[in-house]
Amino acid sequence: MHRQVGIDNLNNTQEWDVVVIGGGATGLGVALDAATRGFSTLLLEAKDFAKGTSSRSTKLVHGGVRYLAQGDVALVREALRERGRLAQNAPHLFKTQPFIIPGEKWWTAPYYTFGLWLYDRLSGKLSIGHTRHLSRAEARKRLSGVKDEKLKAGVCYYDGQFDDTRLAITLAQSIVDHGGTVLNYFPVVGLEKNDKGQICGVRADDALGGSSFLIKAKAVINATGVFANNIIAMDEPQAKPRIVPAQGIHLVLDRDFLPGGDALMVPKTSDGRVLFAVPWHDKLVVGTTDTLVEKAEYEPKPLEQEIQFILDTAKDYLKRAPTREDVRSVFAGLRPLAAPKDEGKSTKEVSRSHRVEVTESKLVHIFGGKWTTYRQMAEDTVDAAIGAGLLPQKACKTTNLRLHGYVENVHLDDTPLALHGSDADAIQALADENPELAKQIHPNLPYIYAQIEWAIEHEVARTLEDVLARRLRFLFLDARAAGEAAQAVAEFMALRLDWDAKRIAKEVADFGVLVEQYTL
Ligand SMILES: Cc1cc2nc3c(=O)[nH]c(=O)nc-3n(C[C@H](O)[C@H](O)[C@H](O)COP(=O)(O)OP(=O)(O)OC[C@H]3O[C@@H](n4cnc5c(N)ncnc54)[C@H](O)[C@@H]3O)c2cc1C
To answer: Is the N end or the C end of the chain the one with fewer CB atoms within 10 Å?
Structure first.
C-alpha cells in the first residue's frame, strides 16, 4: 500500500466502476467487496483510515446480547454469523473472549443462562463456545476482582474481540491486494452530476499534496458514518439529516482491576444500559455510555457525567474502585445511528441494523450498522448499486475471503506482533537486522520501532497521530505513555518522511492536544 501508487492510479484511470467515500469500517468493507467482485474501485478517506468512529469501538465482534433482549433476533443472528466469518477469515485479528454475567439475585443466573443459550444456538455452526451456568464458587474464582456479594452465581458465554484500527488497516491492505486503490487524507469536497442530474463522479482534494481531482465513477457510495449528512447535503442541499450521532465513551484501566482472562458483562446498569469490562492488549476497557449528541465531530469530548457514570458503576462491582488517576486513557466515539422514522425513540431503542438507500440522483448511501457486520453491510451495498443498474451483475466473493496477513492458528494477542499476521515475519526481520528497530518505544507498552518503520513504508502512516493512535494503539491504551513517546517517535518518523524541526514540533504539539483530551 503506497500513497504515490494510489495517486498514479488516480491519474491513469478515466472512469472508476466504484468510488467509495469514507475509510472507516463501512467504506473499507464496501471497497473490498467491490474490488473482489472485479470492479475497478477507489476509496477516498478525508483523514486517516478509522480516524472516525471505527477506532473508538468497544473492540467486540459480537451478536449483541442487548439486541437479543430487545427481541431483534434477525440482527443478532446476522451479527453472530459475521462474527464466525471474521474468526475464520482473519484469525490473527480475532480472539475468543469469555464473558461472565454476575448472578446478583437468585433468578439472574438462570434467566441469563437461558438467554445466552439461545444466543449461542443462534450462531449455529459458527458457534465459538458454549454458554454455561457457573456456581457461586466458580464465578468468584474466575472474577476475583468482582465483589463477592455480586456473585451468587454466574453465566459464562463467549464473544469475539478484535483490534478495530488494525482490522481497518488490514481491510485497506486487502483492497490493494485485490487490485483496488485506497487513499487517505483525500477528502471528497463535491459531487459531480451529469445532464440528467445523476451522480457521475466526485471532486476530491489531496490534503497532503495540495492538488484537486475530478474523478468519474459509475457508482458513488457514501460510507461516511456520522458525517453522512454532509455528503447528503452535497447531493440534496435541503435534505433532512438522516444520521443521528450517539456518543459512547470508554475508560481504560490496568488489568489488575479485573485479574484473569474473563470479561465482566453487566446487562443492566442503574440506568438500564449494558456495561462491559473487557481485557484488551493487557489493559482493561470499561464502557460504554450512550448519549445523543447534536453534532458529528472527529474528536468528540467525553462528558463529565459519562466519566462519572462509568467510574460509579465500576466502583459498584469491582473490589478495588478505580479513581480518575487510575484511568490510562479515555476515548469517545459516535455511533452513526440511522435516524428513526419515529422521532420519539431513545438511542437505546434505535435499531443498530444498517440501511442502504439509492437516491433519485443514484447516490448510494449506507447508514448505521456496526463493525461486526461490516462484511454483510458491504455485500448489501454493492448489491444495491447493481440492483439500481449502476454496475453489472457480479457475485459477492467475501464470505470466505481471507484477509491480508491471514495465518492459521495465530490469534490476537498471542504475541506482540500477532496482529500483523503474516507481515509479522517481515517486521521481525527488520528488528533482527537493525538493533535500533528492535528497541521498545516505551516501557509501558510492548511496541517496537520496527512496527513504525513498517507502518510508514507499508501502511501509509503519515502523521504522528496515525502511528501512535491507529497503527499502534498507544493513545487508546495509555495516553500519558503516548505523550512521553511522542518526541522520540516524531524524530524517528522525521528521518523517514523528511520532516524539518518545525514539522516535528508541530506534530508533537498537535498530538499533545489529543493526549490532553485522552487523559483525566
Ligand atoms: C462507543 C462505541 C462502541 C462501539 N462498539 C462496537 C463494538 O464493540 N462492536 C461493533 O461491532 N461495533 C461497535 N460500534 C459500532 C462501530 O464502531 C461503527 O458502527 C463503525 O465503526 C462505523 O463505521 P463507519 O465506517 O460507518 O464510520 P466511521 O468510522 O466514522 O468512518 C467514516 C469515515 O468517513 C470519512 N469521511 C467523512 N467525510 C468524508 C469526505 N467528505 N470525504 C472522504 N471521507 C470522509 C471520515 O473521515 C471517516 O473516517 C461502536 C460504536 C461506538 C460509538
So the answer is: C
CA pair distance 259, 253, nearest whole angstrom: 12
The confidence score (pLDDT) of residue 345 equals 53
For the whole prediction, is pTM greater than 0.85? yes
Helix axes 25-37, 164-177, angle to 10 degrees: 20
Query: Residue 73 C-alpha to ligand 1 middle, in angstroms?
Result: 23
User: Distance, CA 91 to ligand 1 centroid (Å)?
Assistant: 22
**Does the beta carbon of 68 lie inside 6 Å of ligand 1?**
no
pLDDT at position 232 = 95
Q: What angle do CA 131, 69, 347 make, to 5 degrees?
A: 130
Give the Cα separation of 90 and 398 in Å (integer).
12
Distance of CA 145 from the midpoint of ligand 1 (Å): 32
Residue 208: what pLDDT?
A: 96
Measured CA to CA, the distance from residue 156 to residue 60 in angstroms comes to 16
Name the residue with higher pLDDT: 440 or 239: 440
pLDDT band at 67 (very low <50, low <70, confident <90, very high): confident
* Residue 390: alpha-carbon gap to chain centroid: 29
pLDDT of 72 strictly over 90: no
pLDDT in tens, 261-283: 999 999 888 777 889 999 999 99
Residue bearing cell 419515529: 342
Ligand 1 atom showing the smallest separation from residue 28 Cα: 25
Question: Ligand 1 centroid vs 134 CA: distance in angstroms?
Answer: 36
Is 245's C-beta closer than 6 angstroms to any atom of ligand 1? Answer: no
- Cβ of 16 less than 6 Å from ligand 1: no
Buried b (16+ CB within 10 A) or exposed e, 24-49: bbbbbbbbbbbbbbebbbbbbbbbbb
Ligand 1 site, residue 45, Cβ cutoff 6 A: yes
Half-sphere exposure of 473 toward its Cβ, with a 13 Å CA cutoff?
30
